[in-house]
Design brief:
Growth Hormone, Chain: A; 21 helices; globular; Inositol transporter 2
Length: about 450
């Protein structure tokens, strides 16, 4: 998705209509996000109807087709069509992959495995910047930049054919023997029977409550928090980091791009931290630490840009000083955001819904996430022009405070719990202030 930031420079050279019309440039960039919104919505229904594995296979196919269309695009219209296909695949995969991993993983390492998915995404974003640099001198430049993305999609499609369906989805669909066979391969022998029993109890209870299904759907959906993930400003930093760097006083395009590469690298490194801590520290505690750091760093950025605008005319020494402080604020933001807010919302989102609604609710949450992504990405430059960069970051800071309060009050700690037990816990408790309490997994009578 983010390869387009560099590819667009060369697309403008090949298609003069794109160079002349800002609307075409915006369409080429934003149609992938629009496709992701639709893909996430369709993916939710498809997950519950046809299964997690099938949904990922469809997502890979759509992404591959989109990459081929973009690489061969004879005109801007075809390029936009390819971007829509890529967006559909990305949106569908964004909610299906964490769900599939979560349902097929042992409870003790579920968080780490879903975090690994986040690491691979952030690593891919980092590689996208390197791909831009690698193909700048190749014939066809942007066609290679956009087309090469089809290779990992094709590879994943082939590998997914070798993997089983989610055992929980299979059990829900009445394919109990297949589900149990997969669970016996995934779980240690002494845990298998307990896992099967909990899954059976969960499915039986859902069948009994079928009549109140819509109410349960809405109640569970209110506990999602992936929207906050976008509105604390992450895609402002990721999409516009070169612009922010230049706003802070570093005018060189090359310097801005190189510093943005560092920002992307920090994002990937933070995902590694999440893999290590998510199943040790817990989801909620990591989210609280992450949001506290995000609030601090946004405060730094707001203060720095307030000072830069109050020094006019700005002398070189002052400009350099505030420029480096802005970079420190950006780095702190990524360092705190990535390990917690970058991955934990997707983990919690894949754990908290009833089995029969896990695909639909996950799809709704992912759709809301992509819509908020689009709003933040499209509004940042307008906000900075209307109210200034300092006030823009301050707004993100206030939203981050609201997100922190939401986490403290509503988000449960799900570390180490079987998915079926998480559902039982949510039925018993509405508020979740005490996230530091420890519990023993074998004791089924207690709740976090």
């Amino acid at each position: 998705m983010r390869v387009i930031s560099g590819a667009l420079l060369y697309i403008r050279d090949d298609f003069k209509s794109v160079d002349r019309k800002t609307l075409l440039q915006e369409s080429i960039v934003s149609m992938a996000v629009a496709g992701a919104i639709i893909g996430a919505a369709i993916g939710g229904w498809m997950n519950d109807r046809f299964g997690r594995r099938t949904s990922i296979l469809v997502a890979d196919f759509l992404f591959f087709v989109g990459a081929v269309i973009m690489a061969a695009a004879p005109n801007p219209g075809a390029l936009i069509t390819g971007r829509v296909f890529v967006g559909l695949g990305v949106g569908m995969a964004s909610m299906t992959s964490p769900l599939y991993i979560s349902e097929a993983s042992p409870a003790k390492i579920r968080g780490a495995l879903v975090s690994t998915n986040g690491f691979l995404i952030t690593s891919g974003q980092f590689l996208s910047y390197l791909i831009n640099l690698a193909f700048t001198r190749a014939p066809g430049t942007w066609r290679w930049m956009l087309g090469v993305a089809g290779i990992p999609a094709l590879l994943q499609f082939i590998l997914m054919l070798l993997l089983p369906e989610s055992p929980r989805w299979l059990y829900r669909k009445g394919r109990e023997e297949e589900a149990q066979a997969i669970l016996r391969k995934v779980y240690p022998a002494h845990e298998v029977e307990t896992e099967i029993r909990d899954l059976k109890e969960s499915v039986d209870k859902e069948i009994e409550e079928e009549g109140s299904s819509e109410k349960i759907n809405l109640v569970k959906l209110l506990k999602t928090r992936t929207v906050f993930q976008q509105f604390v400003g992450i895609n402002t930093v990721m999409y516009y980091s070169p612009t922010i760097v230049q706003l802070s006083g570093f005018a060189s395009n090359r310097t801005a791009l190189l510093l943005s590469l560092v920002t992307s690298g920090l994002n990937a490194a933070g995902s590694i931290v999440s893999i290590y801590f998510i199943d040790r520290t817990g989801r909620k505690k990591l989210l609280v630490i992450s949001l506290s750091g995000v609030i601090l760093s946004l405060g730094v950025l707001s203060a720095v840009f307030h000072e830069t605008t109050s020094h006019s005319p700005m002398v070189s020494a002052v400009e350099t000083k505030f420029g480096w402080l802005a970079l420190v604020g950006l780095a702190l933001y990524i360092i705190f955001f990535s390990p917690g807010m970058g991955t934990a919302p997707w983990i919690v989102n894949s754990e908290i819904y009833p089995l029969r609604f896990r695909g639909v609710c996950g799809g709704i949450a992912a759709t809301a996430n992509w819509i908020s992504n689009l709003i933040v990405a499209q509004s940042f430059l307008s906000l900075t022009q209307a109210i200034g960069t300092s006030w823009t970051f301050l707004i993100f800071g206030v939203i981050s405070v609201a997100a922190l309060l939401f986490v403290l009050i509503f988000v449960p700690e799900t570390k180490g719990l079987p998915i079926e037990e998480i559902e039982k816990m949510l039925e018993l408790r509405a508020l979740h202030f005490k996230f530091w309490e420890k519990r023993s997994l074998p004791d089924k009578s207690q709740s976090v």
